[in-house]
Amino acid sequence: MKYFVLLAGPGEMQAWNDLSPDEQQAGMEQHHAFAQACEAHPSVEIVAGEALDESAATTLRTRGGAFSVTDGPFAEAAEQIGGFYVLEAPDLDTVIELCRILPAYDIDIRPVLDLG
Amino acid sequence: MTSTSGRSSTSADDRAHPLDEQLASLHRQEWGRLLSVLVTRTRRLDLAEDALAEAFARAASRWPDDGVPRNPAAWLFVTAHRLVIGRLRHEAVAGRVVPLLAVGTATTRPTDDGLDADDPATGGESIGGEDERLPMLFLCCHPALSADARSALALRLVIGTPTDEIARLFLVPTPTMAARITRAKQKIVGTGIPLALPARDRLDERLDVVCRTILLAFTAGYTPGEGPDLLRIDVASDAVELARVLHRFAPDDERTRALLALVTLQHARRDARVHDGRLVTLADQDRTRWRLDEIRRGLELVATLPPSTGYAEEVRLQALLAAEHARASTAEATDWARIVAVYTELESLTGSPVVRMNRAVAVAEASGPAAGLALLDGLDDALGDGHRLHAVRGELAARAGDVPTAVRAVRAAIERCANEVERRHLAERLATWTST
């Protein structure tokens, strides 16, 4: 199955930009360990994964046929989204287990629908 | 909707036919195991469940004429497996693509081995012991499912409790429960929750949820309903069976032992809890109708429980309370001082206002109604919307001789009580105070 792993918020940690260089370094190492664990797992693959700029969202809306462009993000909670992964993994428990390696973010895991 | 056949009738005047009894016992003993094997092989939770229910229905209609097969479990398995394969072929022809259940690597087997089910040997004793129900139990009790869905699923899939009985248990209409179970099964398949035991180092945190799920299913059976469904003790028995399955799997875990002790001791009082369609309070129960052998087993389990922390301690303290009541051969023999001490510990552990209210009742027994009433102060914010706090206050005030307070409180309780039987009981109490 394919999973979208949304790094939805920093949880009890500070936002990435407020972390000290050492803390950021430690965070990077956790992402690295996550990548290695995914690599080592025979049936897991990181399909995609990116960090997102928390401060530069643009929101597009169409209301009553009128298209608008505004300063984002769309919802307040979305301000804290720090990044995402797309993983190929055999089941939810495998994804949960791997995500425990990441920094202690609040994370949303969603299966990607197979519309093929 | 799933068939309910194969389950014994619970009405006392319905003398069960020996074959019905055999089917009911097969259902009780084999449902979870057969379903687990079917699901492991086909990875289709929806089809497997329907097919197994249909297999039991066919057994009920055919065995009276054809005779009981030499290996009844194998017959049921092969029949259900053929039904699933038939549906799969049908889907393949129709070009439907249906998501498959994730199956843990340890239990993964080929999914297209349909033909070998025509060999009865694969459906026989060789398909293993009762441990095959455990991955299903952990699947149903996965923390990614809602608490309501977990309890219903565990009863349906592990024990085979019919959907209409689960609906009765949770006091919702059958279609509501059927929809809830269907949604939960879709979530399981859609999110890839695997049919597998948790990894050994995750077992500990998963057991908390499994214990809570089973306890919720059990206590629902003792939540007063209406009419003849005052208590759903027959369905609560299925939750006791879940507790046994879990305890056999992890007998050294304090939570599973405390859980089994608690439900065993409470369930041992089932025959005395309802009389003539009315709830009988602990003090008025005919204790000769308690199941002494079950109480003995429960007390033995309680004796093995060391003081603990967290959820394990919470369940242990509840089991200790049940044990204290079970030990008293008459209501007067109850050691209320000991019960107060346990409630005090439980309240400091949980901070629960309901526990505080129950402690007040125990304190009233141990030290008089005025002491109990004083403990009810400050609970109205948390519990004032429900009827129970007012009912307790009314009862204790009456015992303390404060009739005006008692009358006022019980009137408030009657206003808030949704259950007809309980409301009648409250009205009777009110009548005894206002007529004198």
Can you describe this structure in just a few lines?
The complex is a heterodimer of chains A (116) and B (436). By secondary structure, chain A is α+β, with helices and mostly antiparallel strands. Helices cover 24% and strands 34% of the residues of chain A.
The total tally of domains of chain A equals: 1
Based on Cα principal axes, name the global outline of chain A: flat
Any idea of the CATH topology of chain A?
Alpha-Beta Plaits
Seen as an oligomer or otherwise, the chain set is heterodimer
Low-pLDDT runs of chain A:
none
Low-confidence stretches of chain B: 1-14, 106-130
> What distance lies between the first and last C-alpha atoms of chain A, to the nearest angstrom?
13 Å
Structural category of chain A:
alpha+beta
End-to-end gap of chain B = 55 Å
Question: What does this molecule look like?
Answer:
The complex is a heterodimer of chains A (116) and B (436). Chain A has one domain (2-111): Alpha-Beta Plaits. The model of chain A has no long low-confidence stretch (mean pLDDT 91). The relative contact order of chain A is 0.34. Chain A is built from 2 helices and 6 strands, in the order βαββββαβ. Chain A has a 4-stranded antiparallel sheet, with helices on one face. Chain A has a two-stranded antiparallel sheet with strand order 3-4. By secondary structure, chain A is of the alpha+beta class. Among the domains of chain B are: 1-106 and 113-128, no CATH class; 130-230, no CATH class. Chain B contains 20 helices and 2 strands. At the A-B interface, helix 2 of A face loops of B.
